[in-house]
Amino acid sequence: MAKIIECIPNFSEGRDPVIIDKIIDTLRGKEGIKLLDYSSDKDHNRTVVTFVGSPEKVYEAILNMADKVYEYIDMRKHNGEHPRMGALDVVPFVPVNDVTMEECISLANKVAKEIGDKYKVPVYLYEDAATKEERRNLATVRKGQYEGFFEKINNPEWKPDYGPSVMNAKLGCSAIGARVPLVAFNVNLDTNNIEIAQNIAKVVRHIGGGLRYVKAMPVELKERNIVQVSMNLVNYEKTAIYRAFEMIKMEAKRYGVNVIGSEVIGLVPMAALIQCAEYYLQIENFSKEQILETRL
């Protein structure tokens, strides 16, 4: 069977459709690459892209995308609710078919070196590609964000894995890694009080004593005058979506706040949604073979 790697680049532009289209165009209609999804958010000022292909084609595609990202995005003018440290902020590689995690790590290193050398962008390896344990967690790497990295990068402990040890004012820096599939899942609350979302995020996320495989932060959705708890579920098999959702509902009650909706960013494994269906419908002895589309 063919080798397939999934790549989910996040770039720091979610408001200008012309720029977004020019960047996404680097993937459209390209042989050996399949663009699966992309979504932009004006409040986050960020676009998340998902595409797949062979290791060789993914390597070519992400560098072509990087070329346009670095041409059109200027971090000196960027602002948004989502944490970020660079124009091409995050690039994870995920093994999908007949590909090992080691191959994804090798690809992450290859891409990181090329970006560091060609564009003079400091690059940090994270998750399974991390060269230091303290760099495994993306939130730790990105702490301080773009503005804080001008000082942070001078700390010998935060010398980049690739590229210069000087912050690139226009392009920022980048995190490139290899990881297992995750689910980006956000829960919206019927309040505009960001402190409530912050308090809920603190108790839900693992670092605050919450659910083991959950990262969470508060986000203000100014256009809708509400806040949300934005999450990454880094192992949906061990911490299901419905567990995080129910915990947020429970914690929101203490503030007299209700959950008014949720959203999935990017793609989600079918198994993650099956878990939710089994839980909420209390289906007994359910198998994915009972799903019509899986039998076609």
UniProtKB/TrEMBL annotation:
Gene Ontology molecular function terms on file: folic acid binding; glutamate formimidoyltransferase activity
EC number assigned by the record: 2.1.2.5
Keywords: Cytoplasm, Folate-binding, Histidine metabolism, Transferase
Keyword Cytoplasm part of the UniProt annotation: yes
Annotated GO CC locations: cytoplasm
Residue intervals of the Formiminotransferase C-terminal subdomain domain: 181-295
A Pfam family: FTCD_N
Alphabetical list of InterPro entries matching this protein: Formiminotransferase_C, Formiminotransferase_C_sf, Formiminotransferase_cat, Formiminotransferase_N, Formiminotransferase_N_sf, FormiminoTrfase_cat_dom_sf, FTCD
Domain of life, source organism: Bacteria
Domain Formiminotransferase N-terminal subdomain: 3-180
GO BP term, example: L-histidine catabolic process to glutamate and formate
Statement: the UniProt record of this protein carries the keyword NADP: no
Pathway(s) per entry: Amino-acid degradation; L-histidine degradation into L-glutamate; L-glutamate from N-formimidoyl-L-glutamate (transferase route): step 1/1
Protein name: glutamate formimidoyltransferase
Source species of the chain: Clostridium disporicum
